[in-house]
Amino acid sequence: MSTRRDPEASLHRDLEDRSHARTVESDPMERRRFLKVAAAAAAASGVHPGALTAAERRQPVAVQEAQEALAPLGNGEPPALQFQAYPGGTGALLERLWGEAGGIPSERQKIDIGPWPGPAPTDPADLAFLPAHRLGALIRDRKITSAELTDIYLERMRKYDPILLCAVTILEDRARAEAKEADAELRAGRWRGPLHGVPWGVKDLFSVTGARTTWGSGDFENRMIDEDSELVVRLRAAGAVLIAKLATGEFARGANWYRGQTRNA
Fold this sequence. Notes:
Blueprint: H1 7-26, H2 28-44, H3 49-69, H4 90-100, H5 124-128, H6 132-140, H7 146-164, E1 167-170, H8 172-187, E2 199-203, H9 230-237, E3 241-246, E4 256-257, E5 260-261
Helix pairs in contact: 1-2, 7-8
């Protein structure tokens, strides 16, 4: 059973409350009496002001420790690529999709690349715009060496970077050493897979030994993280040849970084 509120009585109570508030504010004696009563009430509740202050000082530290404890992420932890509003999370969704396709997500999947028909293209520009799996076929089938292909891409980086502002660091020495090793392995009969000897560039969000990692920010323009990120480690193991650290928008946002705006998008 509901009761109707009397608007007039409510108005009188509101006016009395406001009048009392003005009295407390204007009358020093009334204000002191109010503070005395409030202090007595706080003491009666068992909350000591000193203990409360200590708890407040400890609270931000405790919150930070709790947050860090929830995320023990190592260098090899794969990033979350996207949010998926699916019961059980993205992992459960991917597991279901793999199951429907007849695969097992924890197992490696073999990638086959077909042979390269005929001779390799002679125009460097034609080679430069081939997809990675076709470059891999060219190298595997001995139509071109990794060293030759790497030189083509290094030359294009030197030529177009002043215009496109696309490179943070061109890793010429490292690239040539890795390409030479890839060719030597192939001659010895070892083929690492579709990426063997294929040149590639990594965004400047990932650390590379001996190169700056700036995240596109002028505040970190000269920062060195002397460690290969997990991405670099895995692609190196697959035989890919790292030729450059590539520009990224400041903190991975947009196309602007400390040298200007990247124009190769």
